[in-house]
Every structure is written in structure tokens, then in C-alpha cells.
Design a protein that fits this description.
The protein is mainly α. Among the domains are: 314-422, Tetratricopeptide repeat domain (Serine Threonine Protein Phosphatase 5, Tetratricopeptide repeat, Alpha Horseshoe), CATH 1.25.40.10; 431-690, Rossmann fold. Helix content is 66%, strand content 4%. The chain is built from 37 helices and 5 strands. The chain has a 5-stranded parallel beta sheet. Helix 2 packs antiparallel against helix 3, helix 10 runs antiparallel to helix 11 (178-190) and helix 19 runs parallel beside helix 21 (348-360). It is elongated, with a radius of gyration of 35 Å. The N and C termini lie far apart (115 Å). The relative contact order is 0.05.
């Protein structure tokens, strides 16, 4: 029996089913078969036009749909499809006229009502659009797209709770409606319901992993929740989908900056500037990162470019002023503050920077009056943190110890809650101190394989403890023409990491090093040092990093002939100063948020230093901060003699340089805080006695 050929109607229905299943190319071929048999089949022409529209061939789509309308001008669905094409071409007035025509032809056409509402929404008339969405849903309560559009209208009018309700109805009807989940997350985020927003965005990306906007939005919520690593991961995925998306580049740059990855942050900002070279905000953000990298000249260039693009940007003047304060360009600081305050006299950051200038001029009372008009409780936590630190410094300068402690305590509590601080592990650093102490207590260094002869002179290592006077000594020595100082660079990190990767790990691997291993580790150090020195000038290199005291054992193992400068200051002043200092969080510096913690890490570090002195034949010289301040020339002559260098009168020019860099600190400042330090005295007393200070 010969099979009967399909009728035109049957062939058309088969094509519709194929199209519904998503096989557009096969459906297109079937519709063409219909038209071969019946060239005037309007519905087949209309369906072909819709396929072309979905595949981006809008001209072909419009030609086919207009041909269908010519054949059947009273069919509302054809008119609606032509309206969709006009909407896709951003010809919104034409689209609106066509949707009105479709509604007139078929008043119960729910989709046409919804489409008309969407046009009004895009034309900035959200209130009018809601009437059409409501009518569409009255006709078809299961029209998920109408609920989504209604939610967008409510969102645009600021009716966020109603928006969220509409979006929820959309996803209840269509659980696979990824875009509606994305929109729901928007509304919830605007209501500061971040956990719920996170859940909505996660639903969106679960339904459609390629929805870049949902990944971007999920990343912003994760950042808001303090989940920085998760935020970075989602921003990175969103950027893979949209490599040139400006907001993703900028926010990923902010996320990297928040995590402390300045190199990657700068890369993001530079990519963003390739897409939008005149974006003043990105220039400012790049300047912030460059400043964190201590690339002051480049940071200033970025800030200046931002001001060229937006001369009214008060926040850029504030950042520029902060840069000048950090680099001790006080006249430039005053000029930047003055220009900024002319634009925005009540700008908190500008007033903060102005108060820093007041303090640097010795007018603490003026700084306190300037900041008193601001409410830190109403500020962003990071700005409030900066305000509290500065108020602490100002009260300290004004001789108001109790108020100073109160503000430093508040500042440190805020600093401890930041993402960078959360990523730090202060106990890990303390554990390393204990491990080093235990290892060198039992070690027998005289039994170790001797280090091979050095192929180049060892540097001098300057250490001690943060805030113990290393920078003052550095400024003095840097004035000597025969000295090059390297200030607080992570030059020993590659060697430490290599030791950690060896059998036994660090520090145990120190005992088993042979000559080849020592030579290799030395080279890792010199490679890391190279960018900061001119090896050809023959200067004595002084590598300064105060917290590096804990690594003296490793440094002696690699460089047994090296000289060590140990900077010493009254333990109470050191602990107090570290508690007052605004540090970038790390495993070590996360131990300074309370006076008790600062005293604990000082105690452990000094006990380790004393152990190194007993167990290792260190060639070292102690520089007592108080003696250096009181007898500059005598102490400096003794220090230069230890280094084997002759006297040079240029070192006496340190005073002006130290004043410009703000490096001279008052002696015995701690006595104004003796009540606050009293609980730590049992911990500090052995070191006060050991170093020969008075309580």
C-alpha cells in the first residue's frame, strides 16, 4: 500500500511541531515545502519570518511578515510580530502603533497587551505600562513574561516589594525563566536583602549558566556579603562571556583591589580604559591601585587625568591630597584640599585630608574642629575607619590620651572586619614564631654543612620591630653616598617559599641544606633584590624590613658573613605605636588590632631575637632610637664604623629629610597612656629590663 502524501495542513502542523521542538532549520525547510505547494500560505510566511527574526535576519523577517500581512491584513498575530520587529529595531513609536492595531483587531490578545506595555516601559512610562501588563494577566494569568515586565515597571517606579512579588509569580509559572530570576535578584538587592538576592541570582545561573548579567549580578552581591573570593570567581566567569563589558572590568578591578591583588586590579582598569579612554572614574581607580603599589608618579598622573576629564570630581581631589600627604608634599596637599573644598565644602574625605594637613602643621585643634561636624556612625565603614584613625592621631597630638585610645580602638575594630583582614590569619604568624623558636632552641648550627664562599658581597639586613626606628635609621644611612637602602620589599620571599617546598619544610630544611641548595637560595634572593639596586655602582646595600627579625636564622644560614642592624625602642612605645598604626592587613599586622595582641606578638618576636643572639654568631649592631634622636652624630658615627664606612657630613642632612617624611617621633609618648598599657606590663617588663629601659 502506497503512503498518501501529507496534505498542506498536515505539513504545516508538522513544521509547527518541529519549530516548537527548537529545530529551526528543519522547520524552515518544512515551511518552504508548504509554500512550494501553496505560495500564498500566509501562516507559513509568518512562521518563516519569525524564524529569520530569531536568527537575526531582520530584513528577511520583515519582508516575509509584511507579505503575510498583505495576504491576511486582519490577523492580529501577524501585526504583533511586525511590532516585535519594530521594537527590535528600536522603532518604538512604530511598534506601539502596531500593537495598538493588534489589540483593536483582537482585544483578548494577551501577548499584544504585554508587548505594548513593554514599549511604554522602554519609553520611560512605567505607570502607563502597568495597565497593559495588568490587562494581559487578566486575559492570561499564566503569562510569565507579563509578570516579569510588570515587575520591571514596579522596579522602575521604586515599588520594590511589588516588583519582587511580580518576579516571583513569573518564576512560579516558569521555573526555567532565568531572566526573571535575575530581575528578582535586582529587586531584592535594592531592598538590601542580599542573602535572598544571592539565592535568586544563583537560581538564574543554574537555569542558564551562560547568562552573563546574572553572573555579574551574583558577583556584586557576593562582594556585598564580604565573600570576596566568590565575587572574584563570578566576575571572572562573567568577563569570559563579555570580555569588553566595562562594568565587569571595573568591578573585577575593585574586587582584586579589595583582595589586595593590585597587579590584576591594574590590568582590569587598563583594559577598561581601552574600552572607554575618557572614563574619569576608571582613571581615579587606577590611580588608587598605583598608589597602593607605591608608584606615586604614575598614580598622580592618573588622578590628574581624571580631573582633566571631570574638574568637578571632589573625590579625586581627596585622593590626590591623600597621595601628597603620604609622600610629604604638604604644599601640594594644601593646594589639592583647597581646590576640592571650593567644589564641595562638606565633602567628608576632603575634610579628612584637610585635617591631616592641620595635624602636620601642628594645629590638632583645628583638625578636631574640622572633623567634629561629621557623624562616623552614618558613614561607610571604610571611611569611618579612616576618620577614627585620624581622630586618634589628632587627639594624641592634642594630649588627649583617653579620647585617642577610644578612636584607635574603634578604628581597629572596623579595620579587623574588612575583607583583607578576614583573609589574614594572625595565629598563623604567631605559630611560625613558635615553630622558629622551637627549631632554633634545639638546632645545632655548628653541625650544619658550612655555607659556600659568597660570589658577591652580602647585603646588610636592617630589622627590629615595626615602629622601632628603622625608618629613621634608613633615612640617615640613605644620605650616605656609599649606601643604597632598599625599603620594605619582599626580597626574601622567594627563598622562604623555596624552603617551604623542600622535604621537611621551613625551617626544618635549613639543617639539611648543602652548598648547591644554599647557592640556589642566595640567587633567588639576589634576583628578587635586583630591581631595587644598581649592582654596578658598588654601594653597600642595606635591605630594611623590621618584621624580618623573625627570619634572622634563615638569613644567617644563607649569608653567615652578613651584618645585621637591630633597631631598638622602648617596648611600650613600640607596642602603643603599632596599635595606633593604620596597616594593610596581613598575617603579621593583623596582630596589632588590640594593645594585648600587639604586646603578645612583640613578646614572641623579641624572645626569638634574643634566642638568635644566643644560638648564632651574628655580626650585629644595635641602634637605640632614643640615643639616635638625642645624639645623632655620635650614634651615626658608631653605626657607620660598624658598617666599615667613613664619615660623610651629608648624613647630618637627615633632619630636613626626616622632617619632610614625618619620621621623627616623640620620645616616651607611652607615658601618657600608662593606664591603658598597665595590663600589658607583665608581658613587656622582661623586655624593658633586658633592653635597659625604665618603667
Amino acid at each position: 500500500m502506497v503512503a498518501q502524501p501529507l496534505s498542506v495542513t498536515e505539513l504545516y502542523r508538522q513544521a509547527q511541531q518541529t519549530q516548537h521542538e527548537g529545530d529551526l532549520e528543519s522547520a524552515k525547510a518544512q515551511y518552504l515545502d508548504v509554500l512550494k505547494r501553496e505560495p500564498g500560505h500566509a501562516d507559513a510566511l509568518h512562521c518563516l519570518g519569525n524564524i529569520d527574526a530569531r536568527q537575526g535576519r531582520l530584513d528577511d523577517a520583515e519582508r516575509l511578515i509584511r507579505q503575510a500581512i498583505k495576504l491576511d491584513p486582519l490577523k492580529a498575530i501577524f501585526i504583533n510580530s511586525l511590532g516585535n520587529l519594530m521594537k527590535a529595531r528600536e522603532r518604538l513609536d512604530d511598534a506601539a502603533a502596531l500593537y495598538e492595531q493588534a489589540i483593536a483587531l483582537e482585544p483578548g490578545f494577551a501577548l499584544a497587551h504585554s508587548n505594548m506595555g513593554e514599549v511604554l516601559l522602554r519609553q520611560g512610562e512605567p505607570q502607563a505600562s502597568t495597565e497593559y501588563f495588568a490587562k494581559a494577566l487578566e486575559i492570561d494569568p499564566n503569562l510569565a513574561g507579563a509578570y516579569d515586565n510588570l515587575g520591571r515597571a514596579f522596579n522602575n517606579m521604586g515599588r520594590l516589594a511589588e516588583a519582587a512579588d511580580a518576579f516571583r509569580r513569573a518564576v512560579l509559572i516558569r521555573p526555567d525563566f532565568a531572566v526573571a530570576y535575575d530581575h528578582l535578584g535586582h529587586a531584592l538587592r535594592a531592598m538590601d536583602r542580599l542573602e535572598e538576592a544571592k539565592d535568586a541570582f544563583e537560581h538564574a545561573v543554574a537555569v542558564d549558566p551562560t547568562l552573563a548579567s546574572a553572573r555579574y549580578n551574583l558577583a556584586t552581591v557576593l562582594m556585598g556579603l564580604g565573600e570576596v573570593d566568590g565575587g572574584i570567581a563570578e566576575f571572572e566567569r562573567a568577563l569570559e562571556m563579555r570580555p569588553q563589558h566595562l562594568d565587569t572590568l571595573v568591578n573585577l578591578g575593585i574586587a582584586y583591589h579589595t583582595r589586595g591583588n593590585f597587579k590584576k586590579s591594574a590590568v582590569c582598569y587598563r583594559r577598561a580604559l581601552q574600552a572607554d579612554p575618557d572614563n574619569w572614574t576608571v582613571h581615579m581607580n587606577l590611580g588608587l591601585v598605583l598608589n597602593e603599589q607605591r608608584r606615586g608618579e604614575e598614580a598622580e598622573t592618573s588622578f590628574r587625568r581624571a580631573l582633566e576629564l571631570n574638574p568637578q570630581a571632589a573625590e579625586v581631589y581627596a585622593e590626590l591630597a591623600a597621595l601628597y600627604e603620604e609622600t610629604n608634599r604638604l604644599q601640594d596637599l594644601e593646594a589639592a584640599v583647597e581646590q576640592g573644598l571650593l567644589i564641595a565644602p562638606g565633602h567628608p574625605r576632603l575634610n579628612l585630608e584637610a585635617a591631616k594637613g592641620d595635624r602636620r602643621r601642628g594645629d590638632a585643634e583645628q583638625g578636631l574642629r574640622r572633623l567634629a561636624k561629621f557623624d562616623t556612625a552614618a558613614m561607610d565603614s571604610r571611611l569611618a575607619e579612616q576618620f577614627h584613625y585620624q581622630l586618634g592621631y589628632l587627639h594624641d597630638r592634642a594630649g588627649q590620651a583617653d579620647a585617642a585610645i577610644e578612636h584607635f580602638t574603634a578604628a581597629n575594630e572596623l579595620a579587623r572586619a574588612t575583607p583583607r583582614a578576614n583573609a589574614a590569619n594572625p595565629e598563623r604568624f604567631l605559630s611560625l614564631l613558635d615553630t622558629l623558636h622551637d627549631f632554633f632552641s634545639d638546632a645545632e648550627p655548628d653541625q650544619w654543612t658550612p655555607a659556600p664562599p659568597a660570589e658577591r658581597p652580602a647585603p646588610v639586613f636592617m630589622l627590629g620591630f615595626p615602629r622601632s626606628g628603622t625608618t629613621l635609621a634608613d633615612v640617615i644611612l640613605d644620605s650616605h653616598p656609599g649606601i643604597t637602602t632598599v625599603e620594605e620589599q619582599v626580597t626574601i620571599l622567594p627563598a622562604v617559599e623555596a624552603l617551604q617546598a623542600m622535604p621537611g619544610g621551613y625551617p626544618a630544611a635549613l639543617a639539611d641544606l648543602d652548598e648547591a641548595a644554599i647557592t640556589h637560595l642566595r640567587q633567588l634572593y639576589f634576583d628578587a633584590l635586583a630591581p631595587f639596586i644598581d649592582a654596578a655602582d658598588g654601594s653597600l646595600v642595606i635591605d630594611k624590613m623590621p618584621i624580618r627579625t623573625i627570619q634572622i636564622g634563615m638569613l644567617w644560614r644563607l649569608f653567615p658573613d652578613a651584618k645585621f642592624i637591630f633597631c631598638q625602642r622602648h617596648p611600650c612605645d613600640v607596642v602603643l605605636s603599632n596599635f595606633m598604626q593604620h596597616y594593610t592587613a596581613s598575617d603579621a599586622f593583623a596582630n596589632f588590632y588590640t594593645l594585648q595582641d600587639a604586646a603578645r606578638i612583640y613578646d614572641k618576636t623579641m624572645r626569638l631575637w634574643q634566642l638568635y643572639q644566643r644560638r648564632l654568631p651574628l655580626d650585629h649592631h644595635v641602634v637605640r632610637y632614643e640615643s639616635l634622636v638625642e645624639d645623632l652624630e655620635g650614634e651615626t658615627r658608631r653605626l657607620l664604623g660598624f658598617l666599615g664606612l667613613g664619615w660623610d657630613p651629608q648624613v647630618l642632612g637627615y633632619a630636613e629629610r626626616a622632617r619632610q617624611r614625618g619620621r621623627i617621633r616623640s620620645l616616651d609618648r607611652w607615658r601618657a597612656y600608662d593606664i591603658h598599657l598597665a595590663p600589658m606590663m607583665d608581658t613587656l617588663a622582661p623586655h624593658i629590663e633586658h633592653f635597659g629601659y625604665e618603667r
